[in-house]
């Protein structure tokens, strides 16, 4: 079992390392936690919030092309219950260059908005609490 002090990292390859990092920094308010170049042929950027137990890592392997997301249902979902904060986040996503798109699964459109990055991966900003 993974304990509560574990940190989750979502790692994604990209052909647009610099632009993708900027989009997520501006759109989600993430901070650049670390970056590396020429590490075993890879360049990368780690983004997140220093006190949250998750972060994103975007990598590019030199000399390769990874292309677009494999489907429209590859999602990162953020639950933002405060309506003002939710709207502010949605506005920042658009300003950062994310494309506002209809969700592949209409469930996400009921109380949220779906945004697509340059690589075709999607981020859902849900305007509600998450709870079981």
Overall description:
- The protein is an alpha/beta fold.
- It folds into 2 domains: 8-61, 2,3-Dihydroxybiphenyl 1,2-Dioxygenase, domain 1 (Roll), CATH 3.10.180.10; 75-126, 2,3-Dihydroxybiphenyl 1,2-Dioxygenase, domain 1.
- It has helices at residues 17-28, 83-95, 107-110, and strands at residues 8-13, 31-39, 42-48, 54-61, 75-79, 99-101, 112-116, 122-126.
- The strands form 2 sheets. Strands 1-4-3-2 form a 4-stranded mixed β-sheet, with helices on one face.
- A hairpin with a 5-residue loop joins strand 7 and strand 8.
- It starts with 7 loop residues before the first strand and ends in a 6-residue tail after the last strand.
- 20% of the residues are buried.
- The mean pLDDT is 94.
Topology record:
Layout: E1 8-13, H1 17-28, E2 31-39, E3 42-48, E4 54-61, E5 75-79, H2 83-95, E6 99-101, H3 107-110, E7 112-116, E8 122-126
Parallel strand pairs: 1-4, 5-8
Antiparallel strand pairs: 2-3, 3-4, 6-7, 7-8
Radius of gyration: 15 Å
Estimate the global geometry from the Cα principal axes: globular
CATH topology of the largest domain: 2,3-Dihydroxybiphenyl 1,2-Dioxygenase, domain 1
* Major beta sheet, strand line-up: 1-4-3-2
| Corresponding CATH architecture of the largest domain | Roll
CATH C-level class of the largest domain is Alpha Beta
CATH H-level homologous superfamily name of the largest domain = 2,3-Dihydroxybiphenyl 1,2-Dioxygenase, domain 1
Number of helices: 3
Largest β-sheet summary: 4 strands, mixed
